[in-house]
# Entry
Amino acid sequence: MSALDGPEREQVLEWVERVATFVSAEWGLAPITGRVLGWLMACDPPEQTAGDIAGAIGASRASLTTNLHLLTSIKLIRRFRKPGERNVYYQIEDDAWSKVIRQQLAAFTAFDELAAEGLRLGWTDEAQTARIRSARTSMAALAEALDRTAALHD
# Structure
């Protein structure tokens, strides 16, 4: 972390820990996964070796390797070598967060289709269909909010 024009390293590490807490609570991933993401979002230089990351977030190399593989496999970070160097570097993908959003939207769309399928089962009890319709109403409200947001940015 460069201390020239920015927050103190301790402040950054506290923020990284909050990212880890969020990722764990909201996405069900291990806190170390969130620490890696947080660190790669904030570090300078943006490309880091596994040793750099381990040293920064206090992770064991074994645990770090597993989580780097996970984040690489879901394409939130990329693994690469610089020409003429033996070191492997990791960097957060430029479009990492749009990928997360697209994945979440795809999951919501799939669940909406599942709820629609549930409504076609021929329920006779309105209370049962009301609970399923509630899911569809929530998905429609999300889609409408996203459409409004997109229109503001056009």
Q: What stands out?
A: The first helix runs from residue 9 to 27. Strands lie at 48-49, 77-81, 88-92. The chain has a mean pLDDT of 91.
